[in-house]
Amino acid sequence: MSDLEFFLILLPPILALFFIFNVFKTKQNTLNLPPGNMGWPFIGETIGYLKPYSATTIGEFMEQHISRFGKIYKSHLFGEPTIVSADAGLNKFILQNEGRLFECSYPRSIGGILGKWSMLVLVGDMHRDMRIISLNFLSNARLKTHLLPEVEKQTLLVLSSWEDNSAFCAQDEAKKFTFNLMAKHIMSLDPGKQETEELKKEYITFMKGVVSPPLNLPGTPYRKALKSRSTILKFIEEKMEERMEKMGEKTENLEDDDLLGWALKHSNLSKEQILDLVLSLLFAGHETSSVSIALAIYFLQDSPNVVQQLTEEHMEIVKAKKQAGETELNWDDYKKMEFTQCVINETLRFGNVVRFLHRKAIKDVHYKGYDIPNGWKVLPVVSAVHLDPSHFDQPYHFDPWRWQNIRGSSSSCSSSWLATSTMSNNTFMPFGGGPRLCAGSELAKLEMAVFIHHLVLNFSWKLADTDQALAFPFVDFPKGLPIRVHRHTFII
Ligand code: HEM
Ligand SMILES: *[C@@H]1O[C@H](CO)[C@@H](O)[C@H](O)[C@H]1NC(C)=O
Ligand SMILES: *[C@@H]1O[C@H](CO)[C@@H](O)[C@H](O)[C@H]1NC(C)=O
Ligand SMILES: *[C@@H]1O[C@H](CO)[C@@H](O)[C@H](O)[C@H]1NC(C)=O
Ligand SMILES: *[C@@H]1O[C@H](CO)[C@@H](O)[C@H](O)[C@H]1NC(C)=O
Asked: Which residues, given as ranges, of the chain have pLDDT below 70?
């Protein structure tokens, strides 16, 4: 073969490649993508993005990228080209346009472990149906009649086991509380019973897998979690069959006080769907709220003046109840916990239990001059907005009173104006937003408030060992938040 022949054979593919490359380049060029760095092939910048950092900061990765590229930048994360947003306006835009321009899109491993019918991965009509069931079940009416008494009961159960001058891991105690509550509310399981304890053990293995790399190899946490998933599902299935047998006897009296009964009676979901719904509610409702309670315990031990004001608020409530001859907390008492609500908001703002959400663009989107191509992943980083000094004055300061300024419109200082405009612009989004706003946000706040009520009335506490909240990016205390507690009694 002569050189010329060789050249002529190679010419067409070279021209074709050249042509394709140019078309690709011009397409990319006509798009105004946000600035950023795509990192290494395939892994992109994922390792840097997932590197653990202090939960009360935005982390080195975010800090460096924002200062280099601004609050909206492109990257390559979780195996896909991605737009990362620390911009309050874009975050809101993304969440409000769920189903129209963007769609929930968690990594496939999450679906593998939570199930294909899990609310976290469903989109469209199926998501809506599941959501309606969850919302019905977590409605305000149910909170008042069913959940408040149960929340208080489970709080007292955990707190009454704390002995004076003892030290233990507060995070484990918070987990015990929220797990018992969810197990009771979802399947009527009683705390301390053998089946509940066994389920809890499986669930811990399961959780470790949800938050670990999705490597389905022998011995990995992910593999073990998949095994736990089937054990848990078998357990729930047995409960379901028990229920259905009862239902056969007399449909009228079918117990619908828990989610399982309710879903069987009021929905026509398949067995498989109910199983995934139960599992995903257990997951969504247990982990997040226990971490929030641990964060509150952690922030409060460092803020004696906040504890002081909390104590005053809760003493007032107890005093009034004593005069009325009541013991159990009711809805009116809960509504009186105003400063407590500020503490809860501040805990969620500063601690950022859920740091970012997973979405993808389902159309070509234009936002403030930038293009977000169809199919790209989009990560609204809500934590970065919560710690942004242009939205929250002195963001690295645990200051529950900042939320009081927002409510009292009497004060006319500029900081209160800023705060007011901040709220109306939805910059505070600990529970996400739009059509996928957390279904359990009211329950989560109720749990935190009731727990704080009994905590400040009966105990003082401090760290028994240094520990801090880290973002992995799921928030966790590496040592489990060891605290030493002292019981005290107030003369009321
Ligand atoms: C402080 C505690 C909590 C935090 C910070 C939190 C946060 C969130 C966030 C950010 C989302 C949105 C996820 C997304 O858009 O991709 C969400 C969804 C959800 N949460 Fe929570 N959550 C908490 C407690 C709870 C509790 C106690 C429950 C009760 C079972 C619950 C049930 C749900 C459900 C069912 C969804 C899915 C909603 C949907 O897709 O329509 N959460 N949560
Ligand atoms: C808190 O203290 C009150 C009054 O001393 C007591 O009646 C109550 O049982 C205590 N609660 C817990 C959870 O220890
Ligand atoms: C239940 O069944 C009806 C008709 O049989 C159907 O229209 C509806 O979409 C179903 N609902 C759910 C939640 O599957
Ligand atoms: C706490 O934040 C929510 C928004 O999630 C807001 O509606 C509420 O008014 C805030 N509470 C207080 C006490 O500021
Ligand atoms: C909030 O929105 C208003 C318009 O609705 C705008 O003028 C203001 O600058 C926004 N504030 C912040 C903090 O984004």
From this structure: 1-29, 247-256, 405-425, 492
Provide the residue ranges of all domains of the chain, joining segments of one domain with +: 1-30
Cα 55 to chain centroid, rounded: 14
The residue type at 392: F
- What spacing in Å lies between the alpha carbon of 322 and ligand 1's midpoint? 36
Take residue 362 and report the two structure tokens written for it: 């389902």
The residue count for the chain = 492
Residue nearest to atom 13 of ligand 5 (CA): 422
Nearest C-alpha to atom 34 of ligand 1 is from which residue?
A: 439
80-85/377-380 β-pairing: parallel
- How many of the other CB atoms lie within 10 Å of CB of 131? 16
Please give the C-alpha separations between residue 313 and each of 39, 344, 347, in angstroms, as whole numbers. 52, 14, 18
Nearest alpha-carbon partner for 263 in 361, 133, 170, 387: 133
Cα-Cα-Cα-Cα torsion 191, 144, 343, 358, nearest 10 degrees, comes to 80
Half-sphere exposure of 46 (CA within 13 A, CB side): 14
Q: Is any atom of ligand 4 closer than 6 Å to the C-beta of 342?
A: yes
Query: What pLDDT score does 125 carry?
Result: 92
- Residue 31: per-residue pLDDT: 87
pLDDT at 217: 87
Pocket of ligand 3, candidates 268, 270, 271, 272: which has the most ligand atoms within 8 Å of its Cβ, to mutate?
Answer: 268
Residue 219: per-residue pLDDT: 86
Check residue 36 and report its DSSP letter. Answer: B
Atom of ligand 1 nearest to the CA of 119: 40
CB-neighbour burial class of residue 398 (10 A; exposed 0-12, middle 13-18, buried 19+): buried
- pLDDT, position 78: 86
At 226, list the tokens: 């998949």
Residue 129 Cβ inside 6 Å of ligand 3? The answer reads yes
Q: How far apart are CA 382 and CA 392, in angstroms?
A: 13
Q: CB neighbours of 97 closer than 8 A, spacing ≥ 6?
A: 434
